[in-house]
Design goal:
The structure is a homodimer of 355-residue chains.
Chain A (H helix, E strand, L loop, with lengths): L7 H8 L3 H8 L7 H14 L5 H7 L7 E6 L5 H16 L3 E6 L4 H13 L4 E4 L11 H5 L4 E4 L9 E5 L1 H14 L5 E4 L6 H16 L9 E2 L5 H11 L8 E4 L2 H13 L9 E5 L4 H5 L4 E4 L2 H17 L6 E5 L2 E5 L5 E6 L6 E3 L2
Parallel strand pairs in A: 1-2, 1-3, 3-4, 4-5, 5-11, 6-7, 6-8, 8-9, 9-10
Antiparallel strand pairs in A: 10-12, 11-14, 12-13
Helix pairs in contact in A: 1-2, 1-3, 5-13, 8-9, 10-11
Chain B binds a DNA duplex (16 and 16 nucleotides) through helix 2 and helix 4.
DNA sequence: CTGTTAGCGCCTTCAG
DNA sequence: CTGAAGGCGCTAACAG
C-alpha cells in the first residue's frame, strides 16, 4: 500500500544529487551528464515515480496544462463520437489529453462542464454547442485568452474559430443533382429553423433553386424535428401541397429515412416515385439506408481539423479567429444499391478568415 | 487582453480581507459571515476569477483531483460511445470530469494515455482494455492505490473491479431459446478465442448445450473475426460440416449480420431456414437488422455502473475488488419484424466479490 | 469570525 | 555540470 507519492526529492536523495538535477533530467535538458541521467531515470522507474503535471503547471507561468476540453452536444450520435475520435487522434499525437463531456443539448450542463474544465486549466476548447447556445456565451472564454474552436454548429457573431461542413455547398449540389434528373418541384424537409446549420442549408437550397431556374416557393421548405419521425411529418405535409414536389433534399439522413417511411405509407416508392437526398449527419443511417443518395460528411476529418486549428492557436499564443469549411461529397446510389461518387467536391478546403 | 490570472489574493485585496477568508468562502465553510461571503463571491464574479484546482489539489494531501480517466478500445463503435456516455452521466453529476481516450486496440497507445492520465493525477480509471492487455498491466496502478474498474472486457487474474455483461447467461438463454424451438444442432459462430468475452460466451454455450441434452461437439464452435466478414466465413465453414447445424448463436450482431449474408448466398433464408441469434455488441446493427433475434446489452448501463462502482471506491479510500455482472435481455423478433421481450433476465444484478 | 504562517511538488534563476 | 533559494495558487493548521 504505497500511500505516499514519490517526488523529485525522494529520487534525488536516492541517487545522491539535488532536486534541480532531477528536474533537469525530467525536461531532457542537455546540461546533465549521461551517467547521472541514466541513474536518475533508473531510480525513477524503480521507485515508481510519476511526474506531477499539476505542480509543474503551477510553477510555469502560462497555462500549459496539456489538456484540451472537448464538449459535444450528443455523444450518442455516431457523428459526434466520430468527431471526438478525430480530435483524439490529433490531441494524443501531440502529447495532449482530452477532457470529453457530453451535454445532451443542455446549456446548463454545458456551462457547468466548461466551468469545471476551466478550473482544471484546459489550454483550449473544442465545442459543438448545445442548441440555444448564444454567441455571448463564448465572451468570457475569449476574454480570458482561451483558444476556442467551434465545430459543426457555427456560432455566427462569436469571435471564435470554427470548423464546419460545407452545408450550403452540399445542399446546392444535391438540388443541382435532382434538377439535372429533371425535377422541377424540389422540397427542403426537416431541421429546426433556429439553428445555424438549418440557415446555412436552406440558404444553399434557395441559391440552387434560383441557379437552376426553379421556383423557390418558401412553402417548399418544411421544418421539423431532425429525426426519423420528423421526416414522416414533413413529407406528409409536403404531399398535401397543391403542386406536389417530386423530390426532396432532407436536413439529414434521419429525416430522409422518415421521408422514405412516409412515402411508402402513401404507396410511393422512394427513389422511383420520389427522389430523396439527405445530409448524413446521423451516421447510423449510412448503413441502414444503403440505397439513399446522400450528402456525405466526414466527422473524423472535422475533428482532426478542429484539433489542428486549436493546437495551432495554442502554440501561436493568440491567433485571429479563423473559419474552416470542410468539404462534403454527394454520393449517388441507384435503387439497386450500387454506389458511385458523382460529384466529388474539391478536396481542397475553402478557407476564409475573420468572423 | 487579461493575461494575468486573478488569484485569491487579488480578490482578497479587492474585498479587504485575507486570502484565508476567501479560501473558506471557496469551500463553502460555515465559518464566514453571510455579508463577507456575499461580497467575496460578488467580487469573484466581477474580476472573472476561476478556481485553480491544480493548486488546490497540490496542497491537499490525497489525489482528490476530481478527474476520472476513461479509456476505451474503440470509440468508433457505438457500443463504447454509449458506454462513455453512461460514465459521463454519473461522473458529471458527481462534479467530476472525465478524461476520455481512445486506444484503437493499440496497447502502446493505451500505455501512453494511462501514463499521461496518471501524470495529471486522475483519481480513478475506467477501462475497456485493448486486445492483448495483460493482467499484469494493471499491477502498477493498483500498487499505486489507484482505483481501477475494468469494463466490458474482463481481465481475469487482475486484482481490479469489473463490470461486464452477462456473457454466459446471455448465450445460455439464446441457446435455450433455439432448443425450445426444436433445434438440436446449434453452432457458436465468431469471435477471437484469445479474449475473455469469447471464453465466457462459449462457456455459456457449452453449459446450455449440456443442460438441454444436446451434443456439444467442439466442431460446432467456429471462431472468426468479430465482424460481418468474419460471420460470412464462419457460416460458410459451418455449412460444410457433416451434420449441418440448423441454427447458431453468434459472438455479436456484426457476425450475425454476416451469417445472414452467407446464408442468403447459399439460398437459405435466415430466420426461416436457419435460426440466427447474436449478441448486440455493435449497436449499429440493432437498427440495421431489425428482424434479428438478439441478446441485448445495455452499454450505457454498464458505463453508469462502472462509474458508480469507481466513485464508491474512491470515496471509500480503498475497497476490495468487486465484479458486477450486468444483465442482458433476449429480444425475440419474428421474421416480420415484430418485437417482444421473451425472456427478460432478472433485473437484479448478480454480484460476486473477490477475484 | 478573520489573519498569519507554512508548505504541497515542481521549475527557475543564480551562484558555485 | 550541479546545488541553494524562492515562488506559483491554494489550503491547513494555528493564533488573534
Amino acid at each position: 500500500m504505497t500511500e505516499t507519492r514519490v517526488t523529485v526529492v525522494d529520487i534525488a536523495r536516492a541517487v545522491g544529487v539535488s532536486k534541480s538535477t532531477v528536474s533537469l533530467v525530467l525536461q531532457g535538458s542537455p546540461l546533465v551528464s549521461e551517467a547521472t541521467r541514466a541513474k536518475v531515470t533508473s531510480v525513477m522507474r524503480d521507485l515508481g515515480y510519476v511526474y506531477n503535471r499539476g505542480a509543474a503547471n503551477l510553477r510555469q507561468s502560462g497555462s500549459k496544462s496539456g489538456i484540451i476540453g472537448v464538449v459535444v452536444n450528443d455523444l450518442t450520435n455516431s457523428f459526434f463520437a466520430e468527431l471526438a475520435v478525430g480530435v483524439d487522434v490529433i490531441v494524443q499525437s501531440a502529447g495532449f489529453v482530452q477532457f470529453l463531456a457530453n451535454t445532451s443539448e443542455s446549456i446548463d450542463r454545458q456551462r457547468e462542464v466548461i466551468a469545471t474544465m476551466r478550473e482544471h486549466g484546459i489550454s483550449g476548447l473544442i465545442i459543438s454547442p448545445a442548441r440555444g447556445t448564444e454567441p455571448s456565451d463564448f465572451r468570457p472564454l475569449v476574454a480570458a485568452g482561451l483558444p476556442v474552436v467551434v465545430a459543426v454548429r457555427n456560432s455566427p457573431g462569436a469571435k471564435v474559430s470554427s470548423v464546419i461542413s460545407d452545408n450550403e455547398g452540399g445542399i446546392f449540389a444535391g438540388v443541382a443533382h435532382l434538377a439535372s434528373l429533371g425535377h422541377r418541384r424540389i422540397a427542403f424537409l426537416g431541421g429546426f429553423p433556429d439553428t445555424a446549420v438549418f440557415q446555412e442549408r436552406t440558404a444553399g437550397y434557395r441559391k440552387a433553386m434560383q441557379a437552376n431556374g426553379l421556383d423557390c416557393d418558401d412553402g417548399l421548405i418544411i421544418a421539423s424535428a431532425p429525426s426519423r419521425l420528423g421526416g414522416v411529418e414533413a413529407i406528409s405535409q409536403a404531399l398535401k401541397l397543391g403542386d406536389r414536389p417530386t423530390g426532396a433534399v432532407c436536413f439529414n439522413d434521419a429525416v430522409a429515412f422518415g421521408v422514405c417511411d412516409g412515402l411508402r405509407a402513401q404507396h410511393l416508392e422512394p427513389g422511383v416515385g420520389f427522389a430523396v437526398i439527405g445530409f448524413d449527419d446521423v451516421i447510423e443511417a449510412r448503413t441502414a439506408v444503403p440505397a439513399l443518395t446522400t450528402i456525405s460528411v466526414d466527422p473524423q476529418g472535422i475533428g482532426r481539423r478542429a484539433a489542428q486549428l486549436l493546437l495551432k492557436q495554442i502554440n501561436a499564443g493568440k491567433a485571429e479567429a479563423e473559419t474552416l469549411i470542410s468539404s462534403v461529397r454527394l454520393v449517388v446510389r441507384d435503387t439497386c444499391g450500387a454506389t458511385r461518387a458523382a460529384a466529388e467536391m474539391d478536396n481542397v478546403n475553402r478557407r476564409q478568415t475573420g468572423s
